[in-house]
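Input record (one chain):
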Amino acid sequence: MPDVTKADASLDLSAAYQALVRRREEAHAERERIIGQIAKLDAALEALRDLIDTSADGAIAADARSEPPALEVTETPAPPADRPRKPASHSRRAVDRRIRIIELLLENPQQWFSSNEVARITEGRNPTGAQRNAVSEALRRLLQHGNVERDETVKPVRYRAITSALRELLLDE
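The corresponding structure, as predicted from the sequence alone:
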C-alpha cells in the first residue's frame, strides 16, 4: 500500500513554495514601484534646486543695486541620526524576520531548533542581542498562536514547526 502521507506532505510543501514565490514577486513589484517614486522625487528635487539657483542669481543682482540685507537667523535641520525612526520600518523588518523564521521552520519540519540557532540562520552568523531577542519574541508569539511546538525537556529550549499551521499563516500574509 503506497504511503499517502508523503504525497500529502509534498503537496503541502508545493503550496507553501508557491506562496513564497508569490510573496517574493509581490515584494519585487513593490520595490520597483518604490524605485519609480524615488526617481520622480529626485527629478522634482533637482527641479527645485534649479529654481532656487535661478532665483538666487536674480536676488544677488537685485541686492547689488539695493542696500545690504539684514542678518537672518535660520534653523538648521537635525541630522538624520537625531530624527526619530518611523514605526512602519520596524513593523516591516518584524514581518520580514517572521517570514524568514517561518520559511526556515517549514524547510526543516522535523528538526528542532533553539532560538539562538534560528537567529544565527535567519539574521546572519553573529546576530546582535537585539536580533536574538526579536527572534525569541517571534518564536514565542508563534508558540502562543499554536504554530510551533516547544520542547522544554532539553536545554536550551527547542522549537519545531507545526507545518499545517505555518503554511496557513504564510498563505494569509
